[in-house]
Structure formats: C-alpha cells, structure tokens
Amino acid sequence: MKKTLIIFLKLLLVVLFITGFSLLSFKLEAVSASEVFPFNGIIHADAAVVYGENVKNGAKATELAYGTRVRVNNLVSNQINNYCKNVYEIEYDGKKGYICSGLLTNIDINISTSDIAGIETYKNYCDVLKGKGFPDSYCPYLYYVHSKYPLWEFNPDMINHTIEEVASEEQGKVVLQTSNSNYWSSSNPIEGDYYFIKSNVIASFMDPRNSMFLDEIFQYLDLAKSKDIVNDTTLLSISGQNGHLAGFLEDFKKAGLENSINPVHVMARSAQEGANKSTYSAVKGTYTTDNGKTSSQGFSLDSYYNFFNIGSYASGYYTGTVQRGLAYAAGFLASDECMTIKEDGKGYYDVTKCGELEYGRPWDTPVKAIYGGSEFLAKTYVNKGQNTVYFQKFNVSSLSNSMYTHQYMTNIYAPSSESNKMYNAYNKGSLLNSKFSFLIPVYKNMTNIQQPLDKSGNNNLSMIKVDGKNITGFDKDVLEYQYNLLTSADSFKIEGIAEDSRAKVSGNGTINFVNGVAKVQLIVTSESNVKNTYTVVVNQVKPVNEIKVSDIVSKMGVKINGTIMYGIVPGTKVDTLVRTVTTNKGTASVVDAKGSPKKSGLISTGDKITIKGSKDSITYTIAVRGDIKGDGKISVVDLLKCQKHILNIDILKNELFYAADTNYDGKINVVDLLKIQKHLLGIATL
Fold first, then answer.
1. Beta strands in 515-614 (DSSP E)
2. Cα separation of 159 and 194, whole Å?
3. 624 and 533 both lie in a single domain
4. Taking a C-beta distance cutoff of 8 angstroms, is the pair 413, 390 a contact?
5. Are residues 559 and 513 in the same domain?
6. What is the extent of the structural domain holding 484?
7. Are 467 and 511 in contact (CB under 8 A)?
8. Domain end among 525, 541, 557
9. Is residue 50 within 8 Å of residue 99, measured between CB atoms?
10. What is the pLDDT of residues 60-82, one digit of tens each?
11. pTM for the complete prediction?
C-alpha cells in the first residue's frame, strides 16, 4: 500500500495539464549519501517554495525559479509534509531559507573538472567539445555526463544570437506558475497563478548550463536519430500497464521508425494530450453518440480518432475543441464538395473527388491516428529544425525560418518535465547505455550563467511633489512633466516617492531656478538595479497683485451702469481707449456692433470693449456722448434722433439712451438737445 501511494504521488506531482501547464514539481528523492555539506545547488523545479524559519507551519518566504543557484548548508530535521520529508537549509542572495531536497540538484557531484578514471582526461575531452564549437563553460557538465554514458554524443547548434536576445523575444510567449511577483512581466495572470515572466527568468530556463544534468539533458535529445532506441518496458513507463496507450506499443514503435521520430517522445506527447485514458472523447470512438455533436455537415464523428489533439481548437461552428479535432481527423474540414453520403446514410470524405488527405487521414482507426499523428509531429516539428523537445518549446534553432513562432505549449517548464520523463523511461527500459545523440544550443557570447533575479524590478514612482504639492494628473507610466510653480523664491523642493519601498530615488532635494526654469531628473533604481528616469520641467511663475476690472475702470475717466460704459467724448480713438486700460495693468479688446474686431478708428456707440484683470473679465457696450447714430461722429442725424425721443416719436434705449443723455442726469430733454446743437454749431463741445 505504501509503495502504491508513493508511485501515485510521483505521478500526481509531475503531471502536465493538457494545455501544457505543469504543477509545481517535486522530486521525492532521498538525500544522497555522497552529499557533503555545504554544497552548491541549483533549483530544478518550475518555481520552488522557500520557507522561512518556521518551516513546520509552512511560512513561505518566497519562490525561487528554475536555474537559481543556491548554497546548501545542511540537512535539517524539520518535516514540512508527507511530500517533503527532507529539508535543506540554503542561502541565496544573502538570505537564508529552507527547501525540500527534491526541488534542487547538487551541482558539485554532477559536474567535474577533474579527471575521472576509465575515460579520457578532462582537458582532452574538453578540447574535443571545443573543437565542435562548445564553449569552455559547457565542459564540466558534459564531461561528467560522458563519464556515466560514454556512448552518448553531444553536438552544438550554433545560434547567431545572444541568450539575452532570444529570451527578450520570448517574453510574452511563455508562462510560469509562480506567486513571486519579482518574476512577473505583467501583474495580470494568464490563468490561475500562471503569469508571463521577465526575460531574465526566461533566460535561466533557456541556458543549457542550468540543465545539462542526467535527468534534464534529454530535452536536447535528437528525436530523429533516436527513432529506434526503444523497447516495451520504456514505453510502458510512459503509459503504465493499464493505460490506454499500453495496447499500442508496437504501433508507436513502428510509427516512430517509419517517420524518423522518437517513439518515446511521441507516446509521451500523446499521453500528455489525454490519449492514455480510454474514456477521453478524442480516442473513445463514440463522440457523437456520447455528446450529440456532429461535423458542420451534420455527419457523425463516431469511429474517428485523434490521439494528439491535432486541429483541436474552438472555431466557428465547432464550439468544442475535441469536436473540431475529430472533424479534422475525418477530413470533414475540407470543402463540402469533397463529401459523399453512402448507402448507409453516413457522410464520408471522398478521396475520388478531392484526392488523398495528408497524414493518412481519415483516421478511422486508432492505429491510423497514431501513425498519422506521428507523421504530423515529424513533418511539422522535427523535420523543420525543431528536432528536440527544447526547440519545440523554444523555436530558436539555427535551422528555423520562423523563430519564436510555432512553439509547442506555453508552460516554460515543459522541456524539463518531459526530459525527466524520458530519462526515467529509458532508465526503466535499461537503455541508457544506448548511443544517444544530443543537439545542444550554443548562443553567442556565453559568459555569465543566466540566473533569475529574485529582486523587485519595480522602478516606478507613485507620485511627485513640488514644494509639498502633488503634481496633478501624475501617471507612473508617463515619464515627462511640465509644472508651473507660483513662487517668488529662487528655489523649490521636489520629491519623487517610489512605488516600491525597496527602490531608491535620486534627484530629490532643493533645486534652484535658472532664468525662471529648472529641469529635474528623478532616477528610480529598482531593487534589481534597473533604472527608470522621470523628467520634470518646473517653470517659475512669479505672483503679482490682483488687478480687478472694477479698479481699472475706476481709473479710466468713464461712467458705468451695469454693462454699459458711457461718458466717452466723441472723437475718442480705439487705441486711446485701449491704452487707458493697459496703463492700468489690464488688457482690452474692442469689437464693433456686428462683433468684428476693431483695432483702429473712432470709438462708436454700440462698440463693445472686453477688459481683463488678473482674474476677472467684463465686456461693456459703449455709449459715446452725442453719437446716437453709432458712427463715431456727431451730425444732424443725432440731433433729430434726440428730438424724436423728446417728442415720444422714437424712444431711445440702452446705450443709445446714454449717448443722448449728454449731461448724465438720467433724462433726455431740451438741455441735451441744445448741447448737441451747440456742438454742431461749434459753440461748445460735448
């Protein structure tokens, strides 16, 4: 019972989701007797939980991503749970924590730079590797692996890019299951706790020097050259004795051999897609009967099989992924003109109408589906330069003509997980001493081993203050600002406040104006030493005494009633009136009675003047004394208009009334009439 439970837990904790997502991986291994503390370790889980001092209570300190190098101090007696019975005390980035032993690999006992008995010297073998194109830094790993399995052959794939360049291109294409926000490239999860991750974390997964260990190296296995290295025991380690795929061992072997693709890889891929369960609807053969769904033509999808979910995605009529995948298997995605309804009433793809389908379709038997799916994987991946599990996940092969696309699964841990399965399968099948060939990527300028940074990359400001006041409309993603500061002082204080308390801000302090302007750069340096610069241009606006329109008007020598300005003598020019405003520290503009701008000439009754102070603005309608007609002049017409008002023939209102009231007594009478008459006769002026 205990043995069965352990086997179950092992299978449970390395299972992959059908979509390619993996659970947090635990290797339930005993601590090796050969381990001598302290030693150098490397995290070999997608994101390993690190606990704080209170291990038994499961107080998580952080998560460390694949490839993180740590110092393992000793084995502690604390047991976290049934899955983690051996706990290491580790040091990482100047911190101390505790981790399950199965989540890391002892680097010290899995590499060698010293000569190993029974094989050539380290120097000689390293010279062979370098002669092929491998850098020095690969030698300790491959020499040790070579000492265990001398028949294994290692070849480089020389990639004309740095690992930093390809990792940057992969950002936004791969996800990691982790709660460590230091690794996220976006705070929005893709699904559950799966996040897109930063390029430095991706680089750690992609650096072969983090994975050239016995149980990790099979992600670089050449899937074409290993097509005939297989036996039943190896395949059964993938399917299990009672798995659905266990009934097709010979078919997988033959399909792999005929299509030049590793059958262990093919079966593992099929199992990952769900085909190892006989109840999985894509391999059961009774899809329409069970689900009531048909092809778009209304044809039954019973008796069709798709062991690899090829073409399985929801689209248009096909709301179910398996539904579309089976329609692909049957050939029903072709034109309706290619279909024939036979005597039994069932619809079929008619080869005589449209020719043979690729990959041996229709897949109307499980064996055809296995052979056809194997051919599909060989032609669309292996034969196009993606001939390792690594290159299927990261399409960066030197032979690829579509880099960073056509990548299988989004989960970045998939190559490591599948490699571990293949290693264990070959180990159980006693085939590890076979002549395997590995194709390992070598990037340009491979100096430093890539490490995921467990440090915050947050280099944003949460706000900027100028003389204690927040800049209105601040946005952490906007890096340039203009700010007008009302001050008579020669300097001001500026403060940028970091969003992350672990970040540092330079540029804060007292800043002097130069000719009324100061340009300030606030540089935010994240915990991971990534800089972000905010630029603020502060313009000095010196305060002035408030100028009110009422104060300006009181000094103009005119009279005001509401919005009518009167008491203006005839013959006053536009620029003269405007100047009386500007002299009193205001601004003014004039328009005529029709609203057209008036910059010169005489002021006339009916014109409007807008006067602005420092804060307020008022528009007045002008009444020129005696200018009742509104032409800026005094004539007999004005005299007649005044007379008609007195006789109640034509009553004057508003600005015309004030133009006729020449003595400002609030009345229009014979006195006003005589004043206008004397002005016309030259006896007196208004």
1. 517-525, 531-541, 559-561, 564-568, 587-591, 608-612
2. 29
3. no
4. no
5. no
6. 461-541
7. no
8. 541
9. yes
10. 889 999 999 999 999 986 666 67
11. 0.69
